[in-house]
């Protein structure tokens, strides 16, 4: 039978959605992940793909977190000396 997923929207009846079992690691997800990473897919209607700018931002957040753990103080990403990548790290204050 394989894996199954039960989906229930608010105030609606629950329904089962079968999950197909694929070949390889992660139930076949490895091939799809590698394709998304290394092949220009071109079609991303939901805008899920991360850009390399997003990657830089995530690394900078990790660097700030590590610095905070080392010093025991809050660290702002704009306080890090990250060279030319600093122009890519623009966060909006909330």
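^ Assign residues to that structure.
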């Amino acid at each position: 039978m394989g894996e199954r997923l039960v989906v229930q929207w608010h105030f609606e009846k629950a329904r089962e959605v079968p999950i197909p079992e694929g070949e390889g690691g992660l139930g076949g997800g490895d091939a799809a992940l590698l394709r998304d990473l290394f092949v220009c897919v071109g079609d991303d209607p939901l805008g899920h793909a991360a850009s390399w700018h997003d990657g830089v931002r995530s690394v900078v957040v990790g660097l700030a977190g590590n610095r905070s753990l080392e010093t025991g103080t809050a660290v702002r990403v704009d306080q890090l000396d990250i060279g030319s990548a600093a122009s890519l790290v623009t966060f909006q204050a909330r």
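The first helix runs from residue 29 to 38.
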